[in-house]
Amino acid sequence: MTLRDVTLAVTPMVAQFWDMARIPMIRKDNIVTKIEKLHREYELLKKGRYRRSEAQISKEKDFEVLLDNLFDVAHGNALTMMTNQEDKEFLLAQREPGRRGRMGGVDSVLAAQETRQSLRLEKAAAFSARKQEEAAASSSVAQLESSPSSSSNTSAVVSDEEYGAVGGASPAKRAKRATKNIVSPALAATLDRTKLTDRSATYVLTEAARCLGQNVEELNINRSSIRRQRLKHRAAMASKIREEFRSGTPLVVHWDGKLVMDLTTKEHVDRLPIIISGIGGANCSPSPSWAVARERAWRQRWSRPWRHGESRIR
User: Fold this and answer.
1) Confidence class for position 236, pLDDT limits 50, 70, 90
2) How far, in Å, CA of 49 to CA of 38, rounded?
3) Which terminal residue of the chain has fewer beta carbons within 10 Å of its beta carbon, N or C?
4) How far is it, in rounded angstroms, from Cα 11 to Cα 29?
5) What rounded mean pLDDT belongs to the chain?
6) Do 48 and 24 form a contact (C-beta atoms < 8 A)?
7) SS3 of 106, please?
């Protein structure tokens, strides 16, 4: 037999004692590696058994002490995984030099406790199986459909009330979801204009409906529903604007910077008016000053939250 064959045969013997002590172990392949390592140390000492130097004698004594100590194959987290305090104390005592303590006979207290636990598990399994059989039988009775008999025209109908009276389990009622939407196009535009997030809009609309005496459980107020309604109204408004803007006439866009007097101060500010002209009239868009426009753009850029890892450099 090879060394590996012998090691594989010895490993179950070692594991048997650790199982009796109720101590979690490392994997079986790691136990095999540890036994082979101990055997290699023995072979190295065996080669120098005829040299009686101080180093050789010291190595032999250390190996004898190693054999007297515990051949520890416990799991690295064994003390954390174990629940019995006596088993923890026994492992700590065995790890001391000389392996203090030893395993006694059968623990009658623990054996009785395990017997009671196994009986409880068996009773629970039997009770669960009996309940499943009763539920299957009751469901098969409830699903029977009435059919006309060849001898008589009577039919047996089991109603839900009668079925519940004999002890059958009534089907669970599902909670009704609120379907009343309150987000109108005007309200969606107001939320966009005030820059309220969907979650903030949920809090505001819920408290507003409660203050107005409405039953908030009947109103479809949640972040997902508000988000869907806002997207729906935005798409409808965009389609409406595109339809109304189709004038069929060519348009001309004029823009140019100009220094004009500011309305609030006596200074001149640089503005950029934009004029759209065509057949039938012209329209001038609001033209804020360059300083105000830059300030708004700066605030809008730096006031929003930044995601982790996103660069602020543009």
Assistant:
1) very high
2) 17
3) C
4) 9
5) 74
6) no
7) coil
Domain residues of the chain, as ranges? Answer: 3-102, 177-246, 248-306
What is the DSSP secondary structure assignment for residue 22, as one 8-state letter?
A: T
Nearest to 169 by CA among 180, 160, 178: 160
Q: What is the pLDDT of residues 131-159, one digit of tens each?
A: 888 777 766 555 554 444 444 444 444 44
- What does the pLDDT read at residue 81? 82
Summarize the chain as % helix, strand, coil (round to 5): 55, 10, 35
Q: 3-state secondary structure string, 126-146?
A: HHHHHHHHHHHHHHHHHCCCC
| CA nearest neighbour of 196 among 213, 178, 212, 208 | 208
How many whole angstroms separate alpha carbon 182 and alpha carbon 185?
10
Closest by alpha carbon to 288, among 274, 275, 299, 272?
Answer: 272
CA atoms within 13 A on the CB side of 231: 7
| CA distances from residue 103 to 49, 81, 90, 182, 211 in whole angstroms, order as listed | 35, 20, 9, 74, 73
CA-based angle 252:255:256, to the nearest 5?
145
Entry pTM: 0.33
For residue 286, the cross-strand partners are none
99: left (phi over 0), alpha (psi -120 to 50) or beta: left
Beta bridge partners of 223: none
| 80, HSE (Cβ side, Cα atoms, 13 Å) | 3
Beta bridge partners of 240: none
Rounded CA-CA distance 145/140 in Å is: 10
CA distance 81 to 304: 48
Burial class of residue 201 in the structure, from the number of CB atoms within 10 Å of its CB (0-12 exposed, 13-18 middle, 19+ buried): buried
Q: To which residue do tokens 């520890």 refer? A: 72
Cβ 84 vs Cβ 22: under 8 Å: yes
**Adjacent-strand bridge partners of 253:** 276
